[in-house]
UniProtKB/TrEMBL annotation:
Entries under Pfam families matching the protein: Glyco_hydro_106
Species whose genome carries this gene: Fibrisoma montanum
Alphabetized GO MF terms: hydrolase activity
InterPro entries, per the entry: Galactose-bd-like_sf, Ulvan_degrading_GH
Protein name: Glycoside hydrolase
Keyword list, A-Z: Hydrolase
SUPFAM superfamilies: Galactose-binding domain-like
Length: 861
């Protein structure tokens, strides 16, 4: 326990350090371990009293901060609209930051309203542009795109993201307003790249000539060619490389430097950009990815909205998330954030049990700074459901999950406090062959490759890079990605390791690639000669990208490749996994049983976060690919640390008996010393630590009583078997609230009351607060719906179990939307359903609600 105490003390010390880091200008104090939330200001029709009220609600619920996004307004409140960056707007924003300091809440701000950047100060000269042919020459024309979902005072043209001069002129608006305030945000934010059709800038031709070495107009036929000829592919690579460079230099470097010079951090969603995501993410102080839609996890009991259109909107993908976390790892950034839980299900239909697996997927992908998407500022005078943003999920006070949101928040805080204070421990660094993607026909608007996170099947998974990345993850290799530019930051370390900042890797892998810049292969060659191990999948790259002098450069790269593959530290093979094993990359073999993980280091402790997002594993011995003397498990749901049963494995490794049901997660901490009191070594036979035990079904009738909710019901019922309360009466199909289920039971005479039991509630819709014999057991809010019954709390006879179940508000909305359609009174897109059609809950079918069971007692082995 002393070792655990020292480890925990170091962890808290690191957490406190993170918590006090803030904007140098405002010395803002905040807690990054807690989840933060997007906070939409509708019409910026806000006032100090309601700001304080809602911030206090956030703080009590366990949130760590807010991200303000001014947005379109609510009808009927026009007189209260506050123009963005006006004196009144700056006053209420300053009040928000001051109140945030008082409450320990951080405040971030979008550098604009809605998205993308733009507004009334964007003139045609600095607005987004696309190319057109004029007299057989390339020239610029406006895209005419306006800011989407703009707030009052924020409407206007979208700025030219490829122009440094345009960006500086755009940011002058903030220099003359926001930067004058003594109370400033922690960070400024840029949403995902959504400048549709933008593919040019005023000085593009001059920049192209300077960067690529020839006049693009001289190769106009190749640029316009859609047949995929060799010259066309190379000119298109040069075109996209120039766009990428200009986005990198014109927007990302300019905006990031501007922020830092004024005391702000930068949070950037680089995805969607027509550039190398790794390089763009790497520039931000806090790279941010996005989890949009619901993953199709095969967790028993996990609900997925049947109306969500996967083909249209895509699903989250861990490989896409790794672009942000890889960039952070390679550049030593402590925080990697995510827009989290967008459109998990339709409005009023999202449960906490749906949110947790999505967050676990983010954690295993390297994300450690969750931003809920999100909450909406709503005045206290607004009738339920208040003001709502058009896109689900609603995490705010009018949400059905709000009373129990602190449970999720505490879970996230416990996880992130560990993830933020540890270092990456990935062995494999996979090269991202951007030029191979640029060699393919572009599918996005404006004829560009926009690397989005929604439809990775349209670009990422079609590349050998994507296919190999999926295979390596499924095989249990811990990996990051590296770009051409970031690869040049790598240095050779001792014992063949390769380093970048605090990140250390054992092997670099180059997926099957056709194109590679000669400078990249030269950098790899230098590392290999210094002892770094490199695996090329199938063959060496045979082509250089780009048009200028490509024949001569191709000869050079092929000569370099032949020299490189003769080195002992280089392997060229179709069997990448075998080469990784030969070169000492650790493989967590249990990953192929459906377990997801991230491996990190905290001092001399190796820390695994493991999530069971599948339905293949429940319990077994697993062999960790990390040497150690003892292992403890930390349950972030309960905050309890437990010594693990272990046995000696191969090569000094430990096998550990892990019980992790589908939907569950835990931390495994491997230390190089025996645990205090000795590690609980199991028998060497390889069997279970204890014998299988039988579950006890609770089959007596249940008494059910409706409690607080809408509409008001006083119904009671005796249930011979558990069923949805929507079947009990016509009124019950609309009920949103809490109902109490009560039953009594006796135990078999042979039951050992000195042992602990698990109370398995089966199917719960949607949160259950449980008491046994008058004593609280806890709240079950996520899958699987199980709680621990401590030893000696059960009786042989006369046990009384009470379960208070709260459902979602969807059933009540079926009635409310019919009776009060006037609540949908927002400008712009108003409020829509998950298919982006006008919202109409009156046609919904009732959602099952209550305790559905079956309920069982399971002795803990």
């Amino acid at each position: 326990m002393r070792l655990l105490g020292l480890w925990f003390g170091r962890l808290i010390g690191g957490l406190l350090l993170i918590g006090v880091l803030g904007s140098q200008a405002s010395a803002q104090s905040y807690n990054t371990a807690r989840p933060w939330t997007y906070w939409w200001w509708m019409g910026s029709a806000v006032n100090e009293k309601d700001i304080t009220h809602q911030l206090e609600q956030f703080a009590r619920a366990g949130l760590g901060g807010v991200h303000i996004i001014p947005i379109y307004g609510a009808k009927g409140y026009e007189q209260q609209f506050i123009p963005f960056l006006s004196e009144r707007w700056l006053a209420v924003f300053s009040h928000t930051v001051r109140e945030g300091k008082r409450l320990g809440l951080g405040v971030d701000l979008t550098t604009g309203t809605g998205w993308p950047f733009g507004g009334p100060n964007v003139t045609p000269e600095i607005a987004a542009k696309q190319w057109k042919l004029d007299g057989g020459k390339l020239t610029a024309t406006l895209t005419k795109q306006q800011v989407k979902r703009a707030a009052p005072g924020g409407a206007g043209l979208v700025v030219d993201y490829f122009s440094r001069e345009a960006m500086l002129q755009y940011l002058q608006r903030f220099d003359s307003t926001l930067n004058r305030l003594p109370d400033k945000p922690r960070a400024v934010y840029n949403d995902s790249y959504e400048a549709y059709g933008a593919n040019w800038t005023t000085n593009f031709l001059a920049e192209f000539q300077k960067r690529r070495g020839y006049d693009l107009n001289s190769q106009l036929p190749a640029l316009l060619d859609t047949t995929g000829s060799d010259s066309s592919v190379r000119v298109h690579q040069d075109y996209h490389q120039t766009l990428s460079d200009l986005l990198h230099d014109g927007f990302t470097v300019t905006w990031t430097n501007w922020a830092r010079q004024r005391g702000y951090q930068s949070r950037n969603q680089a995805h969607g950009s027509p550039g190398n995501l790794l390089d763009l993410y790497a520039l931000a102080d806090i790279p941010e990815t996005e989890s949009f839609g619901s993953s199709r996890f095969p967790i028993p009991g996990l609900r997925v909205d049947e109306n969500y259109e996967v083909d249209r909107f895509g699903t989250p993908n861990p490989l896409a998330m790794k672009f942000a976390s890889s960039a952070a790892h390679l550049t030593g950034k402590k925080l990697v954030s995510s827009e989290t839980g967008t459109w998990l299900a339709d409005h009023f239909k999202v449960s906490l049990s749906q949110i947790k697996p999505q967050i676990d997927e983010l954690f295993t992908s390297g994300i450690n700074h969750v931003f809920y998407h999100g909450t909406t500022y709503s005045p206290q005078t607004a009738a339920w459901p208040g003001w709502l943003f058009y896109a689900s999920t609603n995490y705010g006070p009018s949400s059905p999950v709000w009373p129990h949101l602190p449970f999720l928040n505490q879970y996230v805080e416990r996880c992130q406090s560990r993830l933020q204070t540890s270092e990456p421990d990935n062995d494999v660094l996979v090269y991202f062959p951007m030029h191979d993607l640029w060699a393919k026909p572009a599918k996005s608007s404006g004829g560009t490759h926009q690397l989005e996170v929604h439809h990775v099947d349209r670009w990422l998974l079609q590349l050998p890079f994507g296919r190999l990345g999926e295979q390596l993850q499924q095989q249990g290799y811990a990996l990051d990605f590296v770009s051409d530019a970031l690869l040049k930051r790598l240095t050779a370390g001792p014992n063949g390791l390769v380093q970048s900042g605090n990140a250390t890797y054992r092997v670099i892998v180059v997926p099957a690639s056709t194109f590679m810049p000669e400078t990249t292969l030269q950098a790899l060659s230098t590392l290999a000669k210094q002892g770094v191990r490199i695996v090329f999948e199938s063959a060496m790259p045979q082509q250089v990208p780009g048009y200028q002098n490509w024949q001569q450069r191709t000869v050079q790269i092929r000569q370099l490749g032949r020299s490189l593959e003769r080195l002992k530290t280089v392997s060229v093979t179709a069997n990448v996994a075998a080469a990784l094993d030969q070169f000492g990359a650790r493989r967590e073999s249990w990953a192929d049983r459906g377990l997801s993980f991230i491996r990190k280091k905290h001092g001399d402790t190796t820390q695994y976060f493991v999530a069971n997002l599948n339905n293949q594993f429940t319990e077994d011995w697993i062999s960790l690919a990390t040497a150690g003397q003892s292992i403890t498990s930390y349950n972030p749901l309960t905050g309890v640390t437990t010594p693990m049963a272990v046995r000696k494995g191969k090569a000094g490794q430990l096998d550990v008996w892990l019980r992790l049901l589908p939907g569950q997660s835990c931390f495994l901490n491997v230390v190089p010393r025996p645990a205090s009191g000795g590690a609980p070594l199991a028998q060497p036979s390889g069997g279970r630590p204890q014998a299988e035990v039988s579950a006890i079904a609770l089959s007596n009738p249940w008494q059910m009583q409706f409690g607080k909710g809408r509409p008001n019901l006083t119904t009671t019922a005796t249930l011979p078997r558990l069923t949805s309360w929507t079947t009990l009466s016509d009124s019950a199909v609309y009920f949103w609230g809490t109902a109490r289920y009560t039953t009594t039971f006796d135990l078999p005479t042979t039951t050992d009351l000195s042992r602990s039991f698990t109370l398995d509630l089966g199917d719960v819709r949607d949160v259950a607060e449980v008491r046994l014999n008058g004593q609280p057991l806890g709240t079950a809010w996520c899958l699987p719906y199980q709680l621990t019954i401590p030893a000696s709390q059960l009786q042989k006879q006369g046990n009384r179990l009470e379960v208070d179940v709260t459902n979602l508000s969807a059933n009540y909305m079926r009635l409310y939307d019919r009776q009060h359609p006037e609540w949908k009174r927002f400008y712009d897109i108003n409020i829509v359903d998950i298919r982006y059609r006008p919202f109409d809950a009156s046609r919904w079918e009732p959602m099952p609600s209550g305790l559905l069971g079956p309920v069982r007692l399971v002795p803990v082995p």
